[in-house]
Write a structure and sequence with these properties.
Length: 272
């Protein structure tokens, strides 16, 4: 099990205050890595970092607010990390913009492709694609110079297969939400970018992989949870903690000969 230890390594997690981001931070910290909690809101970053501090045998935790779509903000993140910890060994690109069925903001007629605003599409590409490109470029360069590192891009099953719009349909036949074209387009780009970067930095000792989660339980309405589960071989949605092992595997030396890969954690959703 020593190959799973991250003792003394430095991990940066963007989107670290989200449902899954906090889980990624926790498992990396518990594996003895020093972790930088990165998200847009400074107050939330500092609060999450404080909640995860003071665990015997675990790594230290630092909160840094950053906008991953702005080069100057990512540059400040890089400098803060290097000043505090002296290096960067792991980057988890978890920051994302995604209209969810449980969010009222993404519902309604505007979620239909025929009416989907181009401004929403551009914003999704900005956060999901540029927000992966910039941290990879600016923090990954530090890894490449040091001759080792692991970049983990969080993609999605919807980067591999089209959304099944029927899972969003209510039992009475109405459909208040359609999965937009923006998220699948962005996550498909992430998978392609992952392969590019793995081949580009492989000789520098930097491994680059993606994780493609399936749907995760987050207080969705019962009809959706049941419908999604019926579409999945394991018969259910993922629990938030079920992505932690995949992140630890790709961050650690347990995956030392794995790069350019997409680790699918979807309960078999894409097997059918």
């Amino acid at each position: 099990m020593d190959s799973y230890s991250l003792q003394g390594r430095v991990a940066v997690v963007t989107g670290a205050c989200g449902l899954l981001g906090k889980r990624y931070v926790r498992v990396l910290r518990d594996s003895a890595a020093h972790v930088v909690v990165v998200d847009l809101d400074e107050v939330t970053c500092l609060r999450v970092a404080e909640e995860l501090r003071e665990v015997p045998g675990a790594g230290r935790v630092l909160g840094v607010a950053a906008d991953v779509t702005r080069p100057e903000s990512v540059a400040r993140l890089r400098e803060a990390t290097l000043v505090e910890f002296g290096g960067i060994d792991v980057l988890v690109n978890s920051a994302a913009l995604d209209e969810k069925v449980e969010s009222r903001a993404g519902a309604g007629e505007l979620s239909r492709f025929e009416r989907y605003p181009v401004e929403h599409f551009r914003r999704s590409l900005d956060v999901n694609v540029i927000g992966t490109f910039l941290p990879s470029q600016m923090l990954g360069a530090v890894m490449a110079e040091g001759g080792r590192g692991s970049i983990i891009n969080v993609a999605s099953t919807y980067g591999m297969v089209a959304p099944d719009q029927s899972v969003y349909r209510r039992p009475d036949g109405t459909q208040p939400f359609y999965k937009s074209p923006a998220y699948p387009a962005a996550k498909g780009a992430i998978l392609s970018f992952t392969r590019f970067l793995a081949s580009y930095w492989g000789r520098c000792g930097v491994r680059v992989n993606a994780i493609s989660p399936g749907g995760v339980e987050n207080g969705q309405e019962e009809y959706f949870v049941a419908s999604y589960g019926a579409r999945t071989p394991l018969g259910r949605m993922a629990r938030p903690g079920e992505l932690e092992g995949a992140v630890l595997f790709l961050a650690s030396d347990a995956s030392s000969y794995v790069t350019g890969s997409n680790l699918v954690v979807d309960g078999g959703f894409t097997a059918w």
